[in-house]
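Propose amino acids for all 411 sites.
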C-alpha cells in the first residue's frame, strides 16, 4: 500500500470476549499510542449479540457493531461492511477470523473497496495432528453445513483477496501453504502481543481475589488457574483429571477455571464424578485479567490444539509460573524449566506430576515467573506485534519486518 496508515479498523466476529478479543483491544490501544486512529468493528455470529466490548468502549475505544440478524445473509454482510467502510473511511483493515462461514468474503469486499486488508488466520484446522477426533468428512472439514465447503477452500479464497495473511506460529505457516495453497510470499508469522504495562503482577489484586475465593493461607494450598473457552479443544477436562490425581496424593490444591462455553455442564459433572468438586471453582467472566493471573500460583494451559496461547503469554507477563501441553503455540512460547514448564504429553498424569513438583518448590515457581515476564516482553510485546502487522499491510520486504524476539526492525 502507498502512504501512511492514519486510521486502522480491526474486524472480528467473536462470539464472546476471550484472548483474541483482548489482543484486538491491545492492538487498538497500541495504534492510538502511535498516532493511528483505531476502530473495532464487531460483526457477531448468531447467538452472541451481548456487548462483549462494553469495557473497552468504556475505556474510550471507538467500537461499532451490528446485530447478527442483519448479517446472516451474504447481502446483509456485504451491506454492513460497506456501511462501515463508508462511515469510517479506513486506510487499512485487520480481519480477525474466528469461524463465521461467510467471513471469507470480507477480504474480497475490502479489495473491491480498495482498502488493504490483512487476514489473521486463527482457524488452522489441525485436529488430525493435534489429538482431536475428526469431525464428519475428515479432520480438515468443518462438518456438514449449508454449502459443505471445506474450511481450506474458505481460507484460500480469503487469502487470495487479502493483502497479507498472518499465522500465529511457523507450523501453521507451513500448514496453510500445504493444505490451503496460500502463497508463501503472502504469509507472515506474527504471534499475538501483550501490553506489559497492563499485564504485570498486582499484589492488591492477588489479595482481593484470594479472599474472594476463600483461600486459607495457613493451609498453603497450590492455587492453579486457567482461562479459556470451555470447549473440547481447550482440554479443561485434563486439568480436572490432574486435580483428582493430586487429591489422591493429598496435595492441597485449589483450581480456578475462568471462562464460558458449551462444555461447562459436562466439566461440572466430571469434577463431581471424580470427587474434586469442592477443589474447583468456575468463574464465568473476569473483568480484570491481570489481577486474576496475579492471584494464582500456577497458570495451566491444557489445550489439545493452540496456535498461540495469549492467556499463557499474559500469565507469563504477570510473573506467574506456567505449565502447558505441547501444542504448536506453547512450544513456541515456553522453554522448559527456563520460563515455564513444557509438558511432554497430553496425559493428565504428566500434568499432575508437574503441578506436584511446582507445589513443592516455591523457589522454582518464583524463578519461572520472573524469567517468564522477561521472555514474554521480549518476544510478545504488543508494540512489536503491531509494527509487524503494519509491515505486512504495507507489503514490506521480510528484511524490514520486526524481529518478534528482539522487537527491533532489521536494517
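Proposal:
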Amino acid at each position: 500500500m502507498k502512504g501512511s496508515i492514519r486510521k486502522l479498523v480491526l474486524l472480528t466476529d467473536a462470539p464472546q470476549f476471550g484472548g483474541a478479543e483482548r489482543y484486538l483491544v491491545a492492538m487498538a490501544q497500541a495504534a492510538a499510542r502511535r498516532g493511528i486512529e483505531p476502530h473495532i468493528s464487531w460483526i457477531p455470529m448468531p447467538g452472541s449479540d451481548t456487548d462483549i466490548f462494553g469495557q473497552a468502549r468504556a475505556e474510550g475505544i471507538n467500537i461499532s457493531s451490528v446485530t447478527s440478524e442483519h448479517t446472516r445473509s451474504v447481502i446483509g454482510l456485504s451491506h454492513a461492511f460497506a456501511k462501515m467502510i463508508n462511515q469510517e473511511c479506513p486506510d487499512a483493515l485487520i480481519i480477525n477470523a474466528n469461524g463465521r462461514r461467510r467471513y471469507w468474503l470480507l477480504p474480497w469486499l475490502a479489495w473491491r473497496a480498495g482498502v488493504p486488508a490483512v487476514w489473521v488466520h486463527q482457524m488452522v484446522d489441525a485436529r488430525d495432528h493435534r489429538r482431536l477426533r475428526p469431525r464428519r468428512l475428515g479432520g480438515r472439514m468443518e462438518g456438514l453445513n449449508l454449502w459443505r465447503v471445506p474450511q481450506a477452500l474458505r481460507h484460500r479464497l480469503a487469502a487470495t483477496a487479502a493483502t497479507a495473511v498472518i499465522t500465529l506460529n511457523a507450523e501453521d505457516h507451513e500448514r496453510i501453504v500445504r493444505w490451503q495453497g496460500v502463497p508463501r510470499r503472502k504469509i507472515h508469522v506474527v504471534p499475538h502481543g501483550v501490553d506489559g504495562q497492563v499485564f504485570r503482577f498486582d499484589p492488591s489484586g492477588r489479595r482481593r481475589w484470594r479472599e474472594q475465593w476463600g483461600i486459607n493461607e495457613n493451609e498453603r494450598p497450590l492455587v492453579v488457574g486457567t482461562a479459556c473457552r470451555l470447549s473440547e479443544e481447550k482440554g479443561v477436562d485434563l486439568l480436572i483429571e490432574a486435580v483428582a490425581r493430586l487429591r489422591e496424593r493429598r496435595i492441597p490444591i485449589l483450581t480456578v477455571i475462568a471462562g464460558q462455553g458449551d462444555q461447562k455442564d459436562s466439566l461440572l459433572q466430571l469434577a463431581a464424578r471424580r470427587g474434586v468438586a469442592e477443589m474447583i471453582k468456575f468463574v464465568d467472566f473476569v473483568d480484570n485479567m491481570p489481577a486474576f493471573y496475579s492471584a494464582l500460583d500456577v497458570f495451566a494451559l491444557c489445550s489439545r490444539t493452540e496456535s498461540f496461547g495469549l492467556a499463557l503469554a499474559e500469565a507469563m507477563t504477570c510473573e506467574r509460573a506456567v505449565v502447558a501441553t505441547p501444542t504448536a503455540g506453547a512450544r513456541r512460547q515456553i522453554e522448559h524449566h527456563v520460563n515455564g514448564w513444557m509438558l511432554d504429553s497430553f496425559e493428565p498424569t504428566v500434568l499432575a506430576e508437574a503441578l506436584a513438583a511446582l507445589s513443592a518448590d516455591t523457589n522454582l515457581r518464583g524463578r519461572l515467573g520472573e524469567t517468564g515476564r522477561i521472555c514474554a516482553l521480549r518476544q510478545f510485546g504488543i508494540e512489536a506485534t503491531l509494527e509487524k502487522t503494519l509491515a505486512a499491510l504495507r507489503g514490506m520486504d521480510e528484511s524490514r519486518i520486526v524481529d518478534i524476539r528482539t522487537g527491533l526492525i532489521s536494517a
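Residues 95 and 269 are 37 Å apart (CA to CA). The longest helix spans residues 362-380.
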